[in-house]
Design brief:
Elements lengths: L4 H8 L3 H9 L6 H14 L5 H8 L4 E6 L5 H16 L3 E6 L3 H10 L8 E5 L5 H8 L5 E4 L7 E5 L1 H14 L5 E5 L10 H15 L9 E3 L4 H12 L7 E4 L2 H13 L9 E3 L14 E3 L2 H17 L7 E4 L2 E3 L12
Parallel strand pairs: 1-2, 1-3, 3-4, 4-5, 5-11, 6-7, 6-8, 8-9
Antiparallel strand pairs: 10-12
Helix pairs in contact: 1-2, 1-3, 2-3, 5-12, 8-9, 10-11
């Protein structure tokens, strides 16, 4: 049977409280007493409970992560980036998957993170005023990935600028009839990427004096199947687009399949560019706008740990760069894989 803290106290001839203070490195213990306690702990092969140590410190050593859809690639990558930083700091990650509007309402009504976490990470959700107020009432640091909020740390990219780069690339290749496959602007989960990337698409067209044409826009719901159906609708137009900007790589994969099933060539008949640089984008020769997904989670986790260590630290915003990745799906001069 493993030794207990009481066994260490008996062997060292001190109180249990003195053993606890000695093992935690607190200053109010005489050096000779601390040495005696440490020697007793080594003799008994005593290992302090991490849960007891956390309780004694008044912290949980846990970060709560609120995510809309845990089973989607982007969110999983952000969580992976955050978890790596937290693991190095000996922090746990407590995951809350909302899944739908009802789940979101239920979470904020119950606030299950209360007294369970030292900080909260919110991934790609625009918070309503009452939701932000509820999280701030927890009195723990708050960090957002994908957008920002007053009084919260934030890490994100410039989605509008990234979309402009993608469409400018198509325009530079000579395309003028450029379609868009994106997400819902009125998404009930309040994602911001669809609106921001749509704005970048429009800004690029305006800058090139290309007339806007709503008929060239289709909703793909940020899913593979949605992207395929959206591409089918664009292909059915009397005059189909010569190029398509797709607001996520996963939707772009569906668009590629729809194009190929129509017997059309990519990029000779229709060029396609996505957004994200998904792990399989290179395999499918998809041009895209790369964003540092895991790094966003890592930076947000680091901001939370810094804020926990220094509660007086002011919230900060970090905007990470994107990068245009040109592959064969837009530029026939790029050799296919």
């Amino acid at each position: 049977m493993s030794a207990s803290i009481e066994d260490v106290a008996t062997l060292a001839g001190v109180s249990i409280a003195t053993v606890s203070r000695s093992l935690r490195g607190l200053p109010d213990v005489a050096p000779t007493t601390r040495a005696r306690v440490l020697a007793a702990a080594r003799t008994l092969d005593y290992v302090a409970s991490p849960f007891a140590a956390r309780l004694a410190s008044g912290r949980t050593a846990t970060i709560g992560a609120i995510v809309p859809f845990v089973n989607r690639w982007f969110f999983g990558e952000v969580i992976a980036g955050a978890e790596g930083i937290l693991r190095e700091a000996d922090y746990d990650l407590l995951l809350y998957n909302l899944d739908d509007v009802a789940g979101r309402e239920r979470f904020f009504a119950r606030m299950p993170v209360r007294k369970r976490v030292d900080g909260v990470l919110v991934i790609s959700m625009l918070l309503a005023d009452e939701e932000l107020a509820a999280l701030k009432a927890l009195n723990v640091p708050l960090a957002l990935v994908g957008n920002g909020a007053p009084g919260a740390h934030s890490v994100h990219i410039d989605d509008t600028a990234g979309a402009r780069v993608a469409v400018d690339h198509l325009i530079g290749l000579g395309h003028r009839r450029i379609g868009l496959i994106g997400g819902r602007m009125d998404d009930p989960m309040r994602f911001t990427a669809a609106g921001d990337r749509h704005q970048g698409y429009l800004e690029a067209l305006d800058a090139a004096a290309i007339p806007r044409n709503p008929d060239l826009e289709a909703i793909g719901y940020f899913t593979f199947d949605g992207g395929e159906e959206a591409m089918k609708s664009l292909l059915a137009l009397p005059e189909r687009p010569t190029a398509v900007f797709v607001e996520s790589d996963e939707m772009a994969y569906g668009a590629l399949r729809a194009i190929r099933r129509e017997g059309l060539r990519i990029p000779q008949d229709i060029a396609v560019i996505g957004f994200d640089d998904h792990v399989t984008a290179e395999l499918l020769d998809l041009s895209t706008v790369r964003q540092p997904v895991q790094e966003q989670g890592a930076k947000a986790a680091r901001a939370l740990l810094d804020a926990i260590a220094d509660p007086s630290a002011q919230p900060r915003e970090l905007v990470l760069p994107t990068e245009l990745i040109v592959r064969n799906s837009t530029d026939p001069s790029v050799p296919p894989l």
